[in-house]
UniProtKB/TrEMBL annotation:
PROSITE patterns documented for this protein: COPPER_AMINE_OXID_2 (PS01165)
UniProt PTM: Topaquinone (TPQ) is generated by copper-dependent autoxidation of a specific tyrosyl residue.
Region ranges (Disordered): 313-333
Organism: Mytilus galloprovincialis
Modified residues (2',4',5'-topaquinone): 488
Protein name: Amine oxidase
Length: 794
């Protein structure tokens, strides 16, 4: 018979097991309920900002039937423009399908900005809006003496006439023209046939591929070096064409083979060949050399495109965090705090218009803060990249990227990589070597950004010093575009701060320009990979800042910082001296005086101001804006030599000139080839030496960075250290920091400052701190799957 105490023990254990089972089931049910409720709550959580619109958050990007004086040409205007042009028998235009070098065709067109005085009268005095007009570039290869014509056509949208551009030559030399699509295709087709017919076997034996009939192992001719007559010594149009292996990315697979093409209007011919470290007169000489020396010439294996090559921009290596976690993101809990109407932006105290110039790139106009104009125009002008090297392709590689029509090189910005996912993406419509308008998607992005840096702050912790904290986050509005010139990507930002400051920033990324490594390149480059080097080069950026302070009768002065040596009357030592800084204002009276080259021995503040407008009458300080160039980089090539005259704007970190409608830009699309006789010679803006006292003034600002490529530039150059900026900063312009009016600040102080122990008062000025909403859904991947042409040539 079982022991009663044993039976009781078993029953107790059974009850305990049953109780634990019930508790476990209850917990599981509770967890399921929580998960379901959480999912349900998330599903029903609102999207941030998706509620009734208030003062901000209105986005309308549609083309207006009555476009602003600053707006790019609309699709309707471009169509009407092209109809007008093709009706003009004197222009003898052909359609895009029939374009050849010896025909007449429209190369590009864009909005022609009217005279500044007429625009200001319209904006400020309610005068009639100036007529909309187009600036058209026509290549006249059909003439007995071919040339380039630039004309103004209008009024739009129903043109009735045209005239030459008043500030340009009526006839621009034909050899200065950029390499056009039909010309480029014709030259490459010619080179492919000639080179492969004679040297195809050699190329295959040495480089593992051919130029034609090559299947997956193709060599290509894509990268070029235009050669100006200043370097060639002949008034001819010549270009070096490089040969590379076609693998991602081809520019990092260069070969020691290139050809110099003399690009005549009616005939293209090979003038020289660079091969295996030597210069040859023709392809046959190369073949003869190869036949006699093939055993001693280094062979280059064709890259295996099915593996992760060093040059491919694909993830590889050990991840710093695995499994991956998502990046932090910003949200706008109350929605966008800016408005966009067509191309006009309102944000906090700021408003401005923006556009994409076909030739010059991004521009902003009529920039106002608190309804006062700060600048009439701030615009990109050109990018110069001057290389050095042992081979002629690098030694003569002095690029001015406007030759590629900067505005047409910006498209396809990617949310979550190029810009925040919640940015507003804006496209543009251009015409380049075509019969009608072409829409470029995602050319600009506009977004508000929390920099993570206080705009201002002070923490007075101690009882004896007042006990308070006051601070404000820096949130800015950013207008961004990214211009891609073959291998380099240039990020251009216009940044608007709540204190009335503007920052303009340029950042370089993309692929370095590779060259076949030889020991002769050692003073120009490092060896980055097997058979690969990338040569030293200088990036230089030109910007225009037409700053109008309290109108357009301004002065330019420097506040010069100097040292002084005084008897130290505060010392017991009678021989003691007091050394300290002082400053003095130095008004610049002429354009030559206003051309500024930085000198560490004489530091300065650069100020634009109106003499009559003072901060407060009793202070006698003129309201000013300061130009601060933090991206200065001296151009060290001798002035007037080689291609340097094409970039005479780079001689100065800042140059201030009198405004002229005839001096709209510092550079031109012809500058890469016109060094002997520049179509736009910036130095002439200064040499006429006009007065800059109480005049409408323009600041021309140059920034740059010297780049000596290194192994970490593989596969793609990263942005840290490649950033250059200039600022327009209020300087005695406001009576105090205008951002002190913002409610997006915090002040913390005791309720009673006289007591050590007291409660705390936190003032957020009525701005809610907590929110429960989800960011807007990211639909980008789905959009490009439906329309690949947004991001890739499809």
């Amino acid at each position: 018979m079982a022991d009663p105490s044993f039976r009781q023990s078993v029953e107790v254990r059974r009850l305990l097991v049953l109780l634990l089972l019930l508790i476990t089931i209850s917990l599981l049910i509770a967890i399921i309920v929580i998960v379901i409720n959480t999912h349900s709550n998330r599903k029903h959580q609102p999207t941030c900002g998706q509620k009734e619109k208030g003062q901000y958050g209105h986005i309308d990007l549609s083309e207006s039937d009555n476009p602003s004086v600053f707006r790019d040409l609309t699709s309707k205007e471009i169509k009407a423009l092209m109809k007008y042009l093709h009706r003009q028998q004197s222009l003898n235009l052909v359609k895009a399908a029939d374009m050849e070098v010896n025909t007449s065709y429209v190369y590009s067109c864009e909005m022609h900005l009217p005279s500044k005085s007429s625009v200001i009268d319209h904006l400020d005095k309610n005068a009639k809006k100036p007529p909309r007009e187009a600036h058209v570039i026509i290549f006249r290869g059909d003439k007995q003496k071919p040339d380039i014509e630039e004309i103004i056509v209008g009024p739009l949208p129903k043109p009735t006439g045209h005239r030459p551009v008043s500030h340009k030559r009526k006839s621009i030399p034909f050899i200065y023209r950029p390499t056009t699509r039909p010309e480029h295709i014709a030259v490459i087709d010619m080179l492919n046939v000639k080179i492969d017919t004679l040297l195809g076997t050699m190329l295959e034996e040495l480089y593992g591929g051919r130029l034609i009939n090559c299947d997956s192992n193709c060599l290509i001719i894509r990268y070029i070096t235009p050669v100006s007559s200043a370097l060639s010594g002949e008034r001819r149009r010549k270009t070096w064409y490089w040969v590379s292996q076609f693998a991602e990315y081809y520019i990092l697979h260069p070969l020691d083979f290139a050809v110099l093409v003399d690009m005549d209007v009616t005939n293209n011919s090979i003038e020289n060949v660079w091969f295996n470290g030597q210069l040859y007169d023709n392809l046959l000489d190369v073949l003869n050399y190869y036949s006699a020396n093939k055993g001693s010439i280094t062979k280059i294996k064709f890259p295996n495109v099915n593996t992760d090559s060093f040059s491919a921009a694909k993830q590889r290596g050990t991840p710093p965090i695995s499994p991956p976690l998502r990046n932090p993101v910003q949200v706008s809990p109350d929605g966008k705090r800016y408005n966009v109407n067509d191309r006009h932006v309102n944000y906090m105290s700021w408003e401005f218009d923006f556009r994409m110039s076909t030739t010059k790139g991004p521009q902003i106009y009529d920039l106002k803060f608190n309804q006062e104009r700060i600048a009439y125009e701030i615009g990109f002008q050109d990018i110069a990249v001057f290389y050095s090297g042992y081979k002629p392709m690098q030694a003569m590689a002095n690029y001015l990227d406007s030759v590629g029509l900067l505005g047409s090189r910006a498209q396809g910005l990617v949310p979550g990589a190029d810009c925040p996912k919640d940015a507003t993406f804006v496209g543009t419509t251009l015409l380049v070597e075509s019969d009608g308008p072409f829409s470029y998607e995602n050319v600009f992005c506009l977004f508000e950004y929390n920099t993570g840096m206080p705009l201002r702050r002070h923490h007075s912790y101690s009882f004896n010093y007042g006990r308070f904290y006051e601070g404000m986050e820096t949130t800015v509005l950013v207008l961004r575009t990214i211009i891609v010139i073959v291998n380099y990507d240039y990020i251009i930002d216009f940044i608007f701060y709540p204190n009335g400051a503007v920052q303009v920033k340029a950042v370089s990324t993309g692929y370095v320009s590779g060259t076949f490594y030889t020991k002769n390149e050692n003073k120009y480059s490092f060896k980055l990979h097997e058979n690969l080097a990338a040569n030293i080069h200088h990036h230089m950026f030109s910007f225009k800042a037409d700053v109008d302070i309290k109108g357009n009768e301004n002065r330019f002065a420097t506040v010069d910082i100097e040292t002084e040596d005084l008897p130290n009357k505060f010392s017991k030592n009678p021989d003691s001296r007091l050394l300290q800084h002082k400053f003095s204002s130095n008004l610049k009276e002429t354009e030559k005086e206003a051309a500024y080259k930085f000198d560490f021995e004489t530091p300065k503040y650069l100020l634009l101001y109106k003499e009559e407008d003072k901060t407060r009458k009793s202070y006698k300080q003129s309201k000013s804006y300061r130009i601060l160039n933090t991206g200065m980089s001296k151009q060290i090539l001798p002035e007037g030599k080689g291609n340097e005259p094409s970039i005479s704007w780079a001689r100065y970190q800042v140059a201030v000139t009198k405004y002229k409608d005839s001096e709209p830009t510092s550079s031109s699309i012809y500058s890469i080839l016109d060094a002997e006789d520049p179509v736009v010679h910036f130095q002439n803006f200064i040499d006429d030496n006009e007065s800059v006292v109480d005049e409408d003034l323009v600041a021309w600002i140059t920034m740059g960075v010297q780049h000596i490529p290194h192994t970490e530039d593989l596969p793609i150059t990263t942005t840290p250290g490649m950033e250059v900026s200039f600022y327009l900063l209020p300087y005695n312009y406001f009576d105090e920091d205008p951002a002190i009016s913002s409610l997006n600040a915090v002040r913390i102080e005791p309720t009673n400052k006289l007591k050590h122990t007291t409660s705390i008062k936190i003032n957020r000025y009525g701005v809610a701190q907590n929110f429960e909403c989800l960011p807007e859904e990211d639909k980008y991947d789905g959009e490009i799957e439906k329309n690949p042409s947004i991001i890739l040539d499809a």
